[in-house]
Amino acid sequence: MITSSSLDLRDALPDGGVLMGLDTGTKTIGVALCDPDWRFATAGKTIQRRKFAADKAQLAAQITERGVKAIVIGLPLHMDGSESPRSQAARAMARNLEDIGLPILLWDERWTTQAAERAMIEQDFSRARRAERIDSHAAALILQGALDAMVGSAF
Hints:
Strand content: 15-25%
CATH architecture: 2-Layer Sandwich
Strand order of the largest sheet: 1-6-5-2-3-4
Helix content: 40-55%
Structural class: alpha/beta
C-alpha cells in the first residue's frame, strides 16, 4: 500500500510500531526511526547511494533489525504544492520498495532540509558534520511531521 494519507497509514497500523522515515536524494538517503508509540523520531544512518539493489538491501537490513512496520518517504513538492522531477523520484522509490511488504506513506517534505540545517547550526554542528548528517536529520523531521499528523488525528 502506497498512500499520501497519514490517516490511512495510522489505520493500517492499529498496534503502532516502529516507522522508518526516508529523505531520498540523488547522492544519499537519510534514514530516521521512531519509537513504537509514535512519540518521537530520531535521525539514523545516512546511506551513500549506489545501485538501487544495494540501497534496498541496506534499507531491508535496517527494517529487519529494527522491526519496522511502515516507511515514510519525503515527497519533495514545489512551494505551490505541485510535483517536481524529485517528486517523481520519490514516487519511484516508493514503488521500488513496495515489494518489501510494508505500508508506505509519501509525506510532504517542503522546508525539512532548511529546518534541519537551522537546527544543526543552532546546535553548533560544524559544516563538515552538517554535510554528513543533514539528510538523516531531514528524514527525522519528515517522520516527525507524519507522526504528529497520525497521533494528532487520533484525538
